[in-house]
Structure to design on (301 residues):
């Protein structure tokens, strides 16, 4: 999948394109429907799909990592992709129009959410139509009679409803980060954890303990998966400083510092809470592990 570079020296691609306009930081079922619509609209084998991501104009937190997004876009046969960023002295209309000098655009497929959130105007859509371009605005999909939105997905995660988030996304909520050094408190308590760094741009789950899966990356490919207990929150029992995501890998010994990992949230187990002493905390952690092992046995049939 190629990136669309916008510059005066850029050469026009002579391939006919369907252009998709949307915000893809949260790649839920509604966004998938937009791309399915674009894919169905292709009239011949020569025509291709280009995606213009306007996520910087909404300035929300991320749910879908760039790595996962690129994999998903390729499944919809997207051949070109770019993120438009605000530029001083240029309107969004100017930025989109600049693309017309590089692509032969037969039609434009637009996510209705861009209109609902005032990212695009109906006047701009009318201008596209006046240019002779076929335009289709795609309404969202519904789950239990409610239209799926970015806010609905984010709210599910923030409230700890990760199974609901998975249903809306079509895959578990997953955060990709780098394993960083921490205070090693988990190791002292007999439950060594990996601390997830470089994740501030994600929507943060409700503080609490989760059951999940970790994928260990080797050269951008996940080569190993393990079940994990995930602690997300402020760690009042050990006087934690700030929000942190850490995961205890079940039945694993090894050093993952500086490795990239994917942590997927599958099930909310309990609220974050304080304890009278560390012995009480250890007792609770042992109980959490027993519950996780029961979940694994159910999972494995």
């Amino acid at each position: 999948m190629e990136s669309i570079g916008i510059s005066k020296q850029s050469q026009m691609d002579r391939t006919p394109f369907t252009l998709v306009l949307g915000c893809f930081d949260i790649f839920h079922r509604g966004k998938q429907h937009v791309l399915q619509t674009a894919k169905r609209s292709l009239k011949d084998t020569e025509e291709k799909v280009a995606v213009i991501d306007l996520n910087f104009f909404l300035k929300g937190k991320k749910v879908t990592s760039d790595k996962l997004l690129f994999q998903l876009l390729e499944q919809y046969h997207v051949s070109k992709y770019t993120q438009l960023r605000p530029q001083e002295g240029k309107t969004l209309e100017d930025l989109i129009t600049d693309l017309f000098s590089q692509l032969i655009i037969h039609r434009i497929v637009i996510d209705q959410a861009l209109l609902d959130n005032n990212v695009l105007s109906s006047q701009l859509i009318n201008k596209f139509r006046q240019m002779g371009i076929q335009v289709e605005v795609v309404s969202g999909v519904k789950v239990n009679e409610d239209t799926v939105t970015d806010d609905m997905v984010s709210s599910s995660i923030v409230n700890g409803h990760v199974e609901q988030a998975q249903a809306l996304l079509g895959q578990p909520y997953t955060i990709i980060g780098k394993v960083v050094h921490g205070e090693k408190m988990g190791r002292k308590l007999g439950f060594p954890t990996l601390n997830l760094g470089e994740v501030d741009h994600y929507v943060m789950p409700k503080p609490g303990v989760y059951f999940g899966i970790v994928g260990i990356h080797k050269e951008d490919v996940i080569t190993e998966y393990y079940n994990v207990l995930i602690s997300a929150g402020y760690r009042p029992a050990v006087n934690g400083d700030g929000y942190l995501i850490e995961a205890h890998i079940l039945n694993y010994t090894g050093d993952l510092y500086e490795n990239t990992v994917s942590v997927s949230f599958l099930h909310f187990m309990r609220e974050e809470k304080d304890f009278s002493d560390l012995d009480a905390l250890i007792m609770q952690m042992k109980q959490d592990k027993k519950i996780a092992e029961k979940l694994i046995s159910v999972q494995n049939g």
Notes: The domain at 2-147 is CATH 3.40.50.620 (Rossmann fold). The chain has a mean pLDDT of 89. The longest helix spans residues 278-299. The longest strand covers residues 221-233.
